[in-house]
Write a structure and sequence with these properties.
- This protein is mostly helical.
- It has one domain.
- Helix content is 81%, strand content 0%.
- The chain has six helices and no strands.
- Helix 1 packs antiparallel against helix 4.
- The termini are far apart.
- The C terminus is likely disordered.
């Protein structure tokens, strides 16, 4: 049972790392693409993208720590495992969303060439919405 718990957390950590990678990679325009209003607020603050990435990483780390603490209580293990499975499935969905969204952005950047991704995000005549 612990192996399945660990594998689920490995999925969560891999997708969270990939999400942070994309956030850093597209830092100059990520504020325009972020759907989370709290994330937009944090990125608009003085700390910007580095603060946002740090808070996301801290949130995942604290969640992992909390799950392992709860795992130590044998009567809670089944519930912790189910909750971890749900979060892992949501992370797989997030991965699919990130990939779909980045494909859309790349298609926009091809149809609106001027200055790469930044201009592509502001391009209004793109056929893809």
């Amino acid at each position: 049972m612990f192996i399945r718990f660990t594998l689920a957390w490995l999925i969560i950590l891999v997708v969270a790392t990939y999400d942070n990678y994309l956030t850093v990679k597209h830092g100059p325009v990520i504020g325009e693409m972020e759907y989370n209003p709290v994330g937009r607020y944090v990125m608009g603050s003085e700390g910007g993208v580095p603060l946002f990435v740090g808070l996301k990483t801290a949130g995942v780390g604290l969640s992992l720590l909390f799950a392992f603490v709860l795992w130590q209580r044998e009567r809670l293990r089944a519930s912790v495992l189910r909750a971890t499975y749900v979060v892992a499935m949501l992370q797989v969905g997030l991965f699919g969303f990130l990939e779909t969204d980045w494909v859309r952005i790349q298609m926009r950047s091809r149809s609106c060439k001027p200055n790469g991704l930044v201009s592509a995000m502001r391009c209004s005549q793109s056929p893809i919405r």
